[in-house]
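Review form for a predicted model. The reviewer records the input and the model, then writes brief findings.
Reviewer: anonymous (R2)
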Amino acid sequence: MKKKIMVVDNDPNIVELVTLYLEKENYEVSAYTNSQEAFESFKREAPSLILLDVMMPNMDGYQFLSETRKFSNIPVIMITAKGETFDKVLGLELGADDYLVKPFDTKELLARIKAVFRRYGTVAEDAKVLVIPDL
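Model under review:
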């Protein structure tokens, strides 16, 4: 089963670029340039991870993350141009699992995504499950 990644960024070029790389790595992607739409969709679609920009109109990334954390512990990687220590600390304290500053290299993004999935203990797709009845 493919892992689903939600990409939320107000820059359509970044959304398109990240989507292409993620799909090439065999992830299912839902992409949004509107944080309000993304938040409503998040409640319905249950992605495996969210890539979230901070500087969004309507609902900024910090607010999106805060609202999400009220009912979900889904992994979130913040991707933003806000690279000051204060911004990074705020994102991590609000519950982000990682923080990547723009401009970024897509290889680094993919490595961070895989690292987050490892930390969350997702089962490898080729893993076998041993079932012993009446144990």
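Findings: Residues 123-128 have pLDDT under 50 and may be disordered.
Further findings: The beta strands are 4-8, 28-32, 49-52, 76-80, 98-101.
Recommendation: see findings above.
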